[in-house]
Amino acid sequence: MSSISRRKLIATGIVASSAVAAARIADRQGLLPPSFGGPFGPGEALTYGAQRLLTRHSLAREFRRDQISQPPHANGRPPKDEAFLRSQAIDFKDWRLAVDGLVARPASFSVEELRAMPSRSQITHLACEEGWSFIAEWTGVPLAAVLELAGPAPQAKYVMYFSFQRSWWDSVDMADALHPQTLVTYGMNGGSLPVGHGGPLRLRVPRQLGYKSVKYITRLTVTDSVKSFGKGMGSSAAEHGYSWYNGI
Ligand SMILES: Nc1nc2c(c(=O)[nH]1)N[C@H]1C(S)=C(S)[C@@H](COP(=O)(O)O)O[C@H]1N2
Ligand SMILES: [Mo]
Fold first, then answer.
1. How many Å lie between the centroid of ligand 1 and the Cα of residue 13?
2. For the ranges 71-75, 90-94, 143-147, 241-245, which has the lowest average pLDDT?
3. Which of 90, 115, 137, 164 is the most exposed place for a label (fewest CB within 10 A)?
4. Which CATH class is domain 61-239?
């Protein structure tokens, strides 16, 4: 733990000394989330640390096909920008997903190239922090496979992901990035991923709340620190008061 966040912890005076000790241990084990210094820092650190110790390898629940929600719940509106509509008009043939940062081989993939890679389909639950949720089948390439092609450096700690919607970006640690259920999705319920649900490409992170599943992704950046992105909290959602880590 840095001396600044430690001082903040003590200064708040609301944290029991056991939490401070737990945070110190968590930090040593690499179990502190990047938003640790924020208002929910200590509580979030305990949630994240506990999840990472207990469930690093566990799978999000997968459902049966007859449990798929009809219709699925699409939240928000697709981009109306001319550049997006132009790409949509040609079936997103010019859409690219760039992979850069701490990688041996920076790369960029079209949707077609991603579709040609070994795919995985899974029926999982997407839950919004606002209380609604739905179950859908998601099809895509494991993020681990996309990263593998670029060759992440050994010091990689996080994967940042950025949306065409510039106000939406987020990150996951390597445990979630390499998790077999974390997918770069291009399909939903047997068809292409509808634009309302993030088509042409969306990162599905089924072990966290819905807002971590960012739609319209265009870029992945492998990094050892989230500090140089935005306000350094690892996520646009975190900058609006949501937790960076939201394990379910
Ligand atoms: N680019 C982008 N990604 C996004 C959002 C958004 O508005 N823009 N909304 C998030 C939130 S808050 C939720 S709950 C889910 C909703 O997914 P759905 O539209 O497939 O229901 O997408 C997440 N990803
Ligand atoms: Mo949400």
1. 36
2. 71-75
3. 90
4. alpha beta
